[in-house]
Write a structure and sequence with these properties.
single chain; 42% helix; Arc Repressor Mutant, subunit A; six-stranded antiparallel sheet; 10 helices; two-stranded antiparallel ribbon; 12 strands; Jelly Rolls; alpha+beta; 2 domains; globular; 270 residues
């Protein structure tokens, strides 16, 4: 399987972390990972076979050729795939709203098509991508589309800054301290977080901490859950184990045994 990742155009870098993708070899069947809850949003454009993802009823549904995953509370499995080929856009925390008017709460969990997000313009992009001659042309079409959709003015600059702070500190920043830094009362901060993101600051903080620990454990195979969890603000390993099981439905060790010998969507630094 071939993989790639690259930095976006300079105008997109404050809002998009990277573009990346996978492409299977001819006849290769790729075992795809479990998608966990997190803080970001991932936009996928398939030029190969689209993902089949497991819905809440346990049935596998075929995703559209262009779709968004924005997992907050649900974990789901992707089915093994042959003919795999996709380009993904990884949005920074709290930044998907700069590109679509669909409320954040409506984007949480499941798969949302490019047509749902951008209507006729999204469908037109998919049509252009289907005729793209090569990888560079796909990347150019996707990035220029996003530049045209980018809203330059923040709907709530304080919440954007607050989310970035929570992410950088891996969820260790107390919500009251965050409110003080943003010069907002806690209740007002919570209302504004809910309005923009569909989540409270406490929910975002918990997801940041969880995401950082899981990423560290997946990418650093010698790391131990107890040490990483404590370093990221969990009281102890039991605290992390309970949180992990509540979010994922299994123990951390069981998940790590699968992912460390399989595939995952955690990328190293560019």
């Amino acid at each position: 399987m071939r993989t790639f990742q690259l930095s976006p155009l300079p105008v997109l870098r404050p809002f998009i972390d990277r573009l990346w993708g996978w492409e299977g070899e001819a006849g290769e069947v790729v075992t795809l990972p479990t998608v966990l809850p997190g803080t970001g949003a991932e936009l996928y454009f398939h030029y190969g076979e689209p993902f089949a993802w497991e819905d809440a009823a346990g049935a596998f549904r075929r995703a559209d050729a262009g779709h968004l995953f924005c997992q907050r509370r649900r974990t789901f499995q992707l089915a093994p795939a042959s003919g795999l080929g996709f380009v993904a856009v990884r949005f920074r925390i709290g930044m998907i709203h700069r590109f679509t008017a669909v409320p954040a709460r409506e984007l949480h969990d499941g798969s949302h098509s490019v047509a749902d997000l951008w209507g006729a313009e999204g469908r037109a992009l998919l049509g252009c991508l289907s005729y793209a001659k090569n990888h560079d042309e796909r990347l150019a079409l996707i990035q220029h589309f996003l530049v045209d959709r980018l809203c330059g003015d923040a709907r709530d600059a304080a919440v954007e800054a607050g989310m970035a702070l929570l992410y950088r500190q891996a969820g260790e920043l107390p919500v009251d301290t965050l409110a003080d830094r943003l010069r907002l009362g806690r209740r007002r901060l919570e209302r504004r977080f809910l309005a923009l993101t569909g989540q409270t600051p406490g929910e975002v903080k918990g997801l940041c901490r969880f995401q950082h620990v899981v990423r560290d454990l997946v990418l650093e195979t010698a790391a131990r859950p107890a040490g990483v969890a404590a370093a990221r603000g969990y009281y102890d390993q039991a605290h992390f184990n309970r949180d992990f099981r509540a979010r994922v439905g299994c123990a951390p060790g069981e998940y790590l045994r699968r992912v460390r010998t399989g595939t995952h969507f955690y990328n190293t630094q560019i």
